[in-house]
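Hi R.,

As promised on Friday, here is the backbone we talked about, encoded as structure tokens. Could you run it through your design pipeline when you get a chance and send me back a sequence?
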């Protein structure tokens, strides 16, 4: 309801998990980075040196997530089944009872064939699924936590507002430090438990979505 008569509001950056990771202290620096002799050396292992490794490794560091999804799937199934059955029961003579019973039956009825059943059933079904998804995005994510095994937990968010429509991009997951390239980038296929959300909110999105009452009826009505 915040964008009725006004553009949708941005999410406060100070409330995002990335901001908390940057403001809270990260892991302690190593002993090598504390040595004063490294300050004047080109081969210093310090991250701020000329040849230092600037890849994200501690809480609060920023890296670039490259999302390139080009998936396609096609499944087709077909089934056909048929069955025919016939049953017949006749009692032409049983101690003379059928002859006596025929005298009391209406005209045209006979007990010579008491039961006759015919059944026939058939079923067929066809199903197919075809999906094609393509997405190319780049987003800056922040290391929000370092797990005990050294795996980095990352989280990134991006919001872009055009007129009265807000586009949102969210990404979270777990990455290994050795999978991060020298350009401080990580591809989508190397992120474990990756969660990517690409959507928006605003006046156009509200028009495209069914009303709340319609969604409730679709979930309740059996037909």
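Update: got your reply. Pasting your designed sequence below so it's all in one thread:
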């Amino acid at each position: 309801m915040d964008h009725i008569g006004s553009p949708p509001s941005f999410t406060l950056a100070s409330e995002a998990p990335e901001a908390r990771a940057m403001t809270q202290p990260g892991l302690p620096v190593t002993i090598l980075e504390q040595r004063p002799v490294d300050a004047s050396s080109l081969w210093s292992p310090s991250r701020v040196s000329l040849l230092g490794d600037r890849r994200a490794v501690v809480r609060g560091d920023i890296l670039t997530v490259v999302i390139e999804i080009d998936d396609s799937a096609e499944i087709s199934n077909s089934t056909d089944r048929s069955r025919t059955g016939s049953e017949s029961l006749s009692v032409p003579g049983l101690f003379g009872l059928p002859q006596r019973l025929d005298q009391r039956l209406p005209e045209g009825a006979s007990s010579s064939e008491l039961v006759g059943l015919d059944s026939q059933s058939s079923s067929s079904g066809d199903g197919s699924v075809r999906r094609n998804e393509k997405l190319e995005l780049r987003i800056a994510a922040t290391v929000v936590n370092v797990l005990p095994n050294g795996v980095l937990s990352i989280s990134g968010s991006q919001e872009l507002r055009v007129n009265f429509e807000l586009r949102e991009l969210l990404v979270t997951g777990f990455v290994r430090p050795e999978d991060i390239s020298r350009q401080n980038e990580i591809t989508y296929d190397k992120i474990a438990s990756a969660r990517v959300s690409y959507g928006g909110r605003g006046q156009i999105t509200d028009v495209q979505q069914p009303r709340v009452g319609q969604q409730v009826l679709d979930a309740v009505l059996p037909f």
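One thing I noticed while checking it: The CA atoms of residues 200 and 206 lie 10 Å apart.

Thanks again,
M.
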